Amino acid sequence: MMDCHINSLRSKADIYLSSVRLFRVFLLFYFVIIFNVVPSEAAVNFLTADFGVNPVPPDSQGSQVRSFKLHSPSGKLELSVWDEDGSIQLSLSSGSSILTKIYTGRFKSDDDHINENYQIVKREENSIRENWRPAYGERKEIPNHYHEAIITLSNPENPISSLKLWCRMYDEGMAFRLEFDSSSTSAKELLGDLTSFQFPDNHMAWVSSRAQSEILKTTIDSVSFAAERPLVIRRHEHSISLWGKPLWSIFPG
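Predicted structure:
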């Protein structure tokens, strides 16, 4: 179960997991869905390229540039990804407005050690444009359009320990997940996922402490308990977003 503690204005919302035994593959999955109450500007720069494997390009000094950008299909949303200060950082923006900064790639293991200092070493990009049919519901077909980046992360302090960061950009929002593979990571117990979110302002929020409990209207810095997901945040009267963590899974091996 995810406990989401949002402590103070402009502070990070630390998200912790209960103890989990790592076997073959361990996935952590987060998402954000953004609703625009009024119509947005016309979609521009629709990207249809068939992306392949793209190693992170070197800069003028020959070192690896450990940053890149990923856009939603219409170009409405932009995700910047880079490594800095021991963590992988993501910045989600819409136009000139930053929606959130995300700090991930830091974990607490069973030996009370903080695993961090991962760096971007390679990425692959894909563009998906398809429709899928639900088993039941009001719509016969649902569009599934997104741009995806699969980023390989490596820890220079432990070169054989690597993980992958998956990022998907939709016009409606974004999702990301972290994946450990047993080929490069030994079995251990993870005591904490130190992924955190930083918001640019003390937004209005609707929260509940558990499933089917009362939903409270408050502000981000007033949430003093573990909030049930999704967390509903209103950035302004024309923008409402949902923040959640719908999936973590273990595959015994």
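Summary: DSSP finds no helices and 21 strands in the chain.
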